[in-house]
Design a protein that fits this description.
The structure is a homodimer of 501-residue chains. The first copy, chain A, contains 20 helices and 10 strands. Chain A is α/β, with parallel strands linked by helices and 501 residues long.
Amino acid sequence: MIDSEVVMFEVAELGRKVTKSEFKDALPQLRAELTEVQRRLRDSGVAVLVIVEGVEGVGRGEVVNRLNGWLDTRGTETHAFWDVSSEEQSHPRYWRYWKSLPARGKIGLFFGGWYSEPLLRGCNGEWDEVRIAAAASRIRDLERMLALENVLIVKFWFHLQRTQQKRRLKELRDDPASRWSRTGRDGSVLDYHDFLRTGERVIRETDTALAPWYLIESGDSRYRDLTVGRTLYQTIRERLDLGCPDCESETLSHAPSLPDAADGRLTILDHVPLHKQVDKADYTKRLAKSQRRLRALTWKAYKSGRASVLVFEGWDAAGKGGTIRRLTAGIDARLYRVVPVAAPSDEELAHHYLWRFWRHVPAAGRMTIFDRSWYGRLLVERVEGLAEANQWRRAYHEINKFEQQLVEHGILVHKFWLHISEQEQLNRFLARKDIAYKQHKLTDEDWRNREKRSYYEAAVNEMVFRTSTEQAPWTLVAAEDKRFGRLAVIDTLCDRLEELL
Amino acid sequence: MIDSEVVMFEVAELGRKVTKSEFKDALPQLRAELTEVQRRLRDSGVAVLVIVEGVEGVGRGEVVNRLNGWLDTRGTETHAFWDVSSEEQSHPRYWRYWKSLPARGKIGLFFGGWYSEPLLRGCNGEWDEVRIAAAASRIRDLERMLALENVLIVKFWFHLQRTQQKRRLKELRDDPASRWSRTGRDGSVLDYHDFLRTGERVIRETDTALAPWYLIESGDSRYRDLTVGRTLYQTIRERLDLGCPDCESETLSHAPSLPDAADGRLTILDHVPLHKQVDKADYTKRLAKSQRRLRALTWKAYKSGRASVLVFEGWDAAGKGGTIRRLTAGIDARLYRVVPVAAPSDEELAHHYLWRFWRHVPAAGRMTIFDRSWYGRLLVERVEGLAEANQWRRAYHEINKFEQQLVEHGILVHKFWLHISEQEQLNRFLARKDIAYKQHKLTDEDWRNREKRSYYEAAVNEMVFRTSTEQAPWTLVAAEDKRFGRLAVIDTLCDRLEELL
């Protein structure tokens, strides 16, 4: 799954589709729901700000036109912010956005809004990381301020794969109606990968509990439009259901349910190539070779003072322990430390949930391997309701900031999700029952967790989108074949170490 | 009141004192209160983090020793973070702070903590504004994260005037017990004004509703220690009174009541030199001259594209209208616009409270004069309870960020508080009753406002501390004599324009 592209967006490269007839069947209900929620919105004291962003050629205009067709236009306003007028030029940058903010009871649709400038200038290299971070910090402040004063902010990021984009841009060039699009207007096309890299950074910095991003897969326009319509309906309805116009919207849902269409229910886990295998003889040879490579690289990292933090998460029985053992077999014992993360101790409970992990951050040149980690908050604590909704929603941003600090100190951060199918998990559970020395590894809880698989899948999908950053990526490991999974992990780590040293 | 020093800190240059006997009388109660609140804290699920910062020689060590004497030491820990150990050096910057965070039920006292580095590096010029802002943004995130997870953060900034500091530093040099102080250790003394300027910036960026700064006047050690003890007691008690260990502390009080000692009740308004006067002949001459100067400067500002935003606040009948008329008489009518701020319209109410002011931000070269302003939120709305506590507490930071955007766009921002005594206000009210054409200016509300004078005084005092920044300062105008006040305003504005053009 390691890829030159930015992993975050792979969550929107799953080939999700809605057929024509599914779309037609779903439409009447969605339109009725939108009309109903817009009617309720009118007297609610809440304003809705919808921001649409994404790669060029993704059809932002089409979506907004579609939404305008579905919504009561007396309650909606669209703002494009294309040309900066001379009047706008002579005012502070944000003046034009403030002027255009929707009033209570209204829905405002912003093309890009305050995201356009950091994205464009970041993409074309005018702004460096520090400048982008400063702009993002301002955006966080602004959005927080608005959200705390009755503005529901819904941010959509539309994503297309490179090949799809090329096709779309060609169509657009040939279509006279597209002359107003960003691409059509100035003729230049932003570099796809530069744009994604900047986008990843901007999303990471501005994806907060109060104003989260929704990543919309846009290869299929029916899936795209239906998902946007439903997400908008759900977020508005949930905000209105809070009942209090002045209450903080920090309690809002992050994860709108997926469209009912079969293809729409895919998650990124469905794309892990579980069929991959390595035969035993090949494995033994390759493992020894990879471990030798790892040994050399970890000594080199030690000498150059480069520390590493590895995170292992995955399904029960996916083989985390076995994988970690093969990995550490390739590292001098003085250089690494495995931290198994179980239920927190009393001392740990008395502190912030990140405190116990900060303690184990490795010193220069060393490696800490977390067998389960701070992602517990976004997985088990979320699914089991052990963390409040506003706690785990905040955690995406908190965790990104935590890992960013490690990365800025020069620490390599890599996160592995060990994936196996439901059937394979069952086989392993049953096998454990039969092997005496493995019986203790199987608990009632494991069986209960199995029943919640679909919830965990949704949580993993969202976790990968919101926390797989360029600097601290997730690798989804195909661990159906244990041998393949172990090699994949060791080789991925070696590649990253080699790249950084 | 215009001064080469940073206005923010003038709030802590009032000469507040507590006598020896007042101190002795107050101590038993304070100690009993602290003991009681610390006992309640133990099982509350709340941790308290106290940060002490301020100019050198201000006695931070003395205060912390005093607190340790008053508190039950089994529940307190002090962390100095002096020398960075080699172990700490090999970890990310914040590792050592995380390690030292207090557990629930405990009080942690940090000397400087995460503020030391930005203050020192900002002061000695190693870090520029962008770097300081980035560090402040990280601090805001961290403090917010902790505050939302049961950490009550109490930040004290101790202030001394330059002359007091000089005396203190001399004493310290002569005292062998001070060898461990920041000054004593490396021998170098930070430049006083550089330190204040950096401090002002850091405070402005990190003074949030969730983790506000408390500015402590420290010229008198008894006043200093008593105020710290009482503030600590009050903030902890209020946090515990919220009852819910997990609830957001955004509802905390910002403004602990002042010490009961007579001298402790001073506010910055008590230092406005109300006795100042200008006689009529002199006034007529000087007014004409100042207006000519203003005319030239405003044309120059127009030509160079430099816009201005002026804010006028003050007591009822302090003469805002008359002052603004004299000011605008010196400006070409095409260049300025007066925006009287009354109760918001329906359209304005339907938007964020800053929206109506954003609309009137001047274009390049123009001037907008706000007769009352966004500070209504921190004055009338706060005192009259028209804004919720968490709304006006957030507003300090929101307003600073708003004004910062104007300043960054090159706009001159200056804020005037027109001050008169209670007696003078009464005289003017009574005179109005007798002058037919002024009768409409006197309402029942004016009389009601008079009764709340002390609340307004406290609100103004806090407003000046939290929003008088180097770039957008407050000037407290002695308007007891109308002529003096008008000239002071025009001359202050001219000075600033001249400085900037």
